[in-house]
Amino acid sequence: MDVIDYEIEEINKIVERVICSSKLIACIRSLIRINIKQTESRQITVCIRFPSNYPSEHLLVELKSPTISGKILDGLTTLAEQKASEFLGKPQTLHTLKFIDNYLQENPLCIAYDEIFAVKQLLRRKNDLGSCGGELKCLQKTSNVSLVVNESDYFFKAKYHVPEEYPTKCIEFLEHKSNFPDALLRFLNGQAKEIARKCVEPPLRANIKSDFVVKPSLLPSLRFLIEAISDFTSELCPVCNFKCLPAKAADVELRDTADLYAERVYCGHIYHLGCLKKYMREPPFPLGGKTCPAKKPHPRSDSNKGTKDSNGTQPIKNRKPNQLTDENICGLRISHDRWALNVKLAEARWAQQQARERELEEVKDFLQ
Ligand SMILES: [Zn+2]
Ligand SMILES: [Zn+2]
């Protein structure tokens, strides 16, 4: 009985007990094939072959997985063969299998590797362009990732959990810290959560439900955050055309009734509260309500929440037919829960104010 016979007997006898998540498919001299399935998404098929002068040479390992990135499988194959090389001249199979099982256990984020890689690429590109700085760190022990995005004087830090059931379950939002104003922060987090949820929950409309497929949620959520954050500091108020946010985060207006308070409305554009009030109160008062005068549609408007088409462009919905012809303005109706000012009321107020001014003029004229 040689080493290979001995190992085949041993593997047949004990492997499923030693590696509890494993299932032995084949175990003969020409091939050992075993499935390791720790969770629905952490599963891998290991094929092991004995080279001709085994055990003086290391085992040949081949890995397949329907859920784990090819890059991870390639890296893990090399590591597993290195592990086998530590036992040259001795039985290597069980050590190698245990190593693979442990690796999956200790690196739960491997199921999101391609997405993590894409987020890092995105941050690197932004760093290179100088538009923002940022970092994504993997915390394998807890299956968390931490994101930091810096944009001039502003920062956003947050931590997300990649659950065992990922991608069937979406990422969880653990904590965040930032010096962006609260209204913008609420939008950022609310929208990022909504994007994640939509990756795993079918829409309510029945006709779309049938062909709904669960998608991984980490990349869409984090991509949205990084892009929105890097735009915030350069956004201009559609009324006065000055930046919505002050250059220094310490100067951010926190009082939500102050003129320089940054208010985000339905179309996605950010206004100075004072400018918005003034704009809403002055004519013209079109029949359907006041529309946003910004020079172009906002890429992250609430009217097309998280629904980018395959080209990455946002569909333009909720526009009136006559506005479709003019792509150079936003043109969406201004609405905001704090801004339910109706047109008739605004018109009446404006008329009243005009009447009062006329009266004053007349009095002045009279007194002269
Ligand atoms: Zn303004
Ligand atoms: Zn707008």
Task: Describe the secondary-structure layout.
Layout (H helix, E strand, L loop, with lengths): L2 H16 L3 E7 L2 E7 L5 E7 L10 E5 L5 H16 L7 H14 L6 H17 L3 E7 L4 E8 L2 E8 L10 E7 L3 H19 L5 H4 L8 H15 L29 E3 L5 E3 H9 L39 H4 L18 H25 L1
Antiparallel strand pairs: 1-2, 2-3, 3-4, 5-6, 6-7, 7-8, 9-10
Bound molecules: zinc ion (ZN) (2 copies).
Detailed description of the structure:
By secondary structure, the protein is an alpha+beta fold. The protein has two domains: 3-106, Ubiquitin Conjugating Enzyme, CATH 3.10.110.10; 111-313 and 324-360, no CATH class. 38% of the residues lie in helices and 17% in strands. The chain is built from ten helices and ten strands. It has helices spanning 3-18, 70-85, 93-106, 113-129, 182-200, 206-209, 218-232, 273-281, 321-324, 343-367; strands spanning 22-28, 31-37, 43-49, 60-64, 133-139, 144-151, 154-161, 172-178, 262-264, 270-272. Strands 1-2-3-4 form a four-stranded antiparallel sheet, covered by helices on one side. Helix 4 packs parallel to helix 7. The structure holds zinc ion (2 copies). One zinc ion binds next to loops. One zinc ion binds at residues 267, 269, 292, 294, 298, 330, 332.
Which shape, going by the Cα principal axes?
Answer: elongated
Can you list the strand order of the major beta sheet?
Answer: 1-2-3-4
User: What is the distance, rounded to the nearest whole angstrom, between the alpha carbons of the first and last residues?
Assistant: 124 Å
Radius of gyration: 30 Å
Tally of helical runs: 10
User: How helix-rich are the residues, as a percent range?
Assistant: 25-40%
SS strand fraction: 15-25%
Bound molecules: zinc ion
Q: Describe the biggest sheet?
A: 4 strands, antiparallel
